[in-house]
Structures are given as structure tokens and as C-alpha cells.
Amino acid sequence: MIINTKILNVDDYYYGVFMTISAPLTGFTENELQSTGLAEIYYKHILGKIEKATFIEFLNISKNAIESSQTPDQLSAAISTQILSNPSTKKIAQDVITLWYLGTWEGAYVNDLSYKEGLVWNIMQAHPPGAKQPGFKSWSIKPVNSNS
């Protein structure tokens, strides 16, 4: 698999690794993650919250998993064996997943946008209460999974 080396205006090679590994960790595409408007913010937030060497170790192991995989199934297996089974990278991977889904790092929201754009709302086919309303007359449309 190929690592995106430059996305938007971020020249940092590891940012590309972060985005490439975030996609299979979350089950969303890199474009979907980028569309949250939080990719660069999350990357910089992590760099400011944990020791840089620890984050770089996680990204190097992720890079090896990505580069050694030819198919999504191989990448999934590599993530399971090389990242999620490794005590030094498991917690960071879990924190990255939580960051994308809930917009929180260690229980605190990164910013207002991180709450609004959490991936959890897409999975639930809902909107974040008090932040991003579904729109005028949306109540007149049956929910997608409605049995009624």
C-alpha cells in the first residue's frame, strides 16, 4: 500500500503515515477523515500531548505495516499483529481511534469542531445535539433504519 507523503499543506512525512494508518484504524477513507477539517489539528494535537519519540515509534511501526501490505486484508492483519498486539503502540492506536470517533484525547474535547465532526455521528446516522442540527423540516423524513 502507498503512504500519502503530502496532504494539503503539511510537508511532514509522518503526517502522511498518520492519515494512511488512521483510515484502516477507523474504517473511514482518508478523504472522509480529511473532510472533518480536523486531520492536521489532530496530528498536531497528538504531537503536543505525548512524547514525540513515542508517537514517531507508533508511526514507524505503522509505516512498516502499511508498506508490507499489498491488500486491505493484509493491512488489517498487520495492524492486529504489529500495532494492536504491541504494548508500546496499542494505547496510542486506541487513543487515535477515540480521537477520530469522539473528538476527545484523554477525555477532553480537542476543540468545538472535534465534537461536531466526531465520526460517531456518522455511524449513528445522527447529529451532535446542540451543535449541528439536521435541518428545517428534517423531522418529516423517516429515519433511514425506521421500521415504521
TrEMBL record:
This is Membrane bound FAD containing D-sorbitol dehydrogenase. It comes from Chryseobacterium pennae.
